[in-house]
Amino acid sequence: SARVSSGPWLSLSYVKGVFTRLAAGIKAIEDGVKAKTGNDQAFMSHPDLGCITCCPSNLGTGMRGSVHILVPKLIAKMGLSGIDKLCRERNCQARGSSGEHSEVVDRIDISNWRRLGFPEHELVQDMIHTANFLAQLEDECE
Length: 142
Known about the structure:
By secondary structure, this protein is an alpha+beta fold. The protein has three helices and five strands.
């Protein structure tokens, strides 16, 4: 089954828990950098574009949220390119479970591909809706 964990399909509360832990980790790093450097700001940022990161595609929220989903029947039926097409229609992308350009066996990585000009909650919601959509398709596969 394409279900995430032992509960229902991917839920906002599950993603919120992951995001909360991530935010706490980033805050700890930020506090450490500020303490070590004596600067008021640990990361470069722009008031409109958000955090400045290594990859220009990550300007804005700087966030790429992803989830691995087990969809072996869907992979066999459509292949990664077919699944990626469905994901792109929902503002997400599909990758191999070990990252971009990696081999696809029985699971894929679903993530938001929009980064600029969108609030984080919208990007996470795109990922949740897409993962649940693919889980439903997997469950419907014969």
